[in-house]
Specification:
Number of helices: 5
Largest sheet: 6 strands, antiparallel
Distance between the termini: 59 Å
Helix content: 25-40%
Radius of gyration: 16 Å
Order of helices and strands: HHEEHEEHEEH
Structural class: alpha+beta
Number of domains: 1
Length: 128
């Protein structure tokens, strides 16, 4: 993964590098007939879709939502470096996952490809 570190002039998070070393990208939860839109980018895709000077790099496209690594946050030692950029917005307008790549991927797999980041819960503790 030296290619990515050289391209962005900085080391990338080890959990993300481990993923790339294991499978170098993936297409998850695609329907055999209709396909799908869940793409975790390969090394070549990351280089293709990002500029070397970018501080927020797109590493996945999940049904038009982009998943990004915030390199500034990572370099400053923040382990919660993963960001969400919804399809209609530029990468300057992102939300935080409050997680790293490994945690996000685990949750994505557990949710079976659902956009768990949009789930809302409502709890009511009414006395009866």
């Amino acid at each position: 993964m030296k290619e990515l570190s050289d391209y962005f002039s900085t080391p990338l998070p080890p959990d993300y590098i481990s993923f790339l070393q294991l499978c170098n990208g993936a297409s998850l939860f695609a329907d055999p007939e209709y396909g799908g839109g869940n793409f975790l980018y390969s090394v070549q895709d990351v280089i293709h879709y990002n500029e070397a000077s970018d501080n927020k790099i797109v590493v996945a496209n999940i049904l038009d939502d982009r998943i990004l690594i915030d390199l500034e946050r990572w370099r400053s030692g923040n382990e919660q470096y993963l960001l969400l950029c919804e399809s209609l917005f530029s990468v300057e307008h992102t939300g935080r996952f409050y997680s790293n790549f490994e945690t996000w991927l685990e949750r994505f797999i557990i949710s079976q490809g659902s956009k768990f980041w949009y789930w809302k819960t409502e709890r009511s503790f009414e006395e009866k």
